[in-house]
Structures are given as structure tokens and as C-alpha cells.
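[step 3/7] fold_predict: job queued, chain A
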Amino acid sequence: MKILNAKPLPGFRLELQFDNGELGVVELSSFAGKGVFVAWETPGLFEQVAVSADGAVEWPGELDLCPDSLYLRMTGKHPQDIFPALADHLTHA
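[step 4/7] structure written:
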């Protein structure tokens, strides 16, 4: 799963478009000000979001977020919904 486009929105939200065609908004305010994400409190830094060559979102200072986790957060799906092998493993565990 890769992110194709990321657009910053107010309130530490991102509008994301994934390579499967899904488009939506993910809310990230719960990360802001915590750990490495204290950097987002620097005026204008969150808006500098970019999409990396491997389809993740990233910010200056080596901050990045996994596209799979953002997809799950955006859609409300569970890992086994998008990774069928995981679902098979869970049913046989």
C-alpha cells in the first residue's frame, strides 16, 4: 500500500490518496507535541509534508509515518482486512 498524494489540512489532519484509489482524511492531532512529533508544533512544519519514493508521508527532520497504519486509521479497517495472510494466520492460531 502506497500513498500517492498528501495534502495538509488544519488541525493536524492529512488528506491522503492511496494507490488503490481510496481518498480520505486522517486525523493526527493525537501525535502532535508527543515524542518526535513535538516538531509539528514548529509553525509551518506540518504543512511541509511530502510523499517519499516508497509511498510514505514524511517531514523535515526524518519524521515519517507508515502508509499501512495511516490507511487503517483513515478507513477504520483492521489489519486482517487488508492483509489476507494475516487473517488466515489468526484463524489457525
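[step 5/7] annotate
The chain has a mean pLDDT of 90.
The chain is about 25% helix and 30% strand.
exit 0
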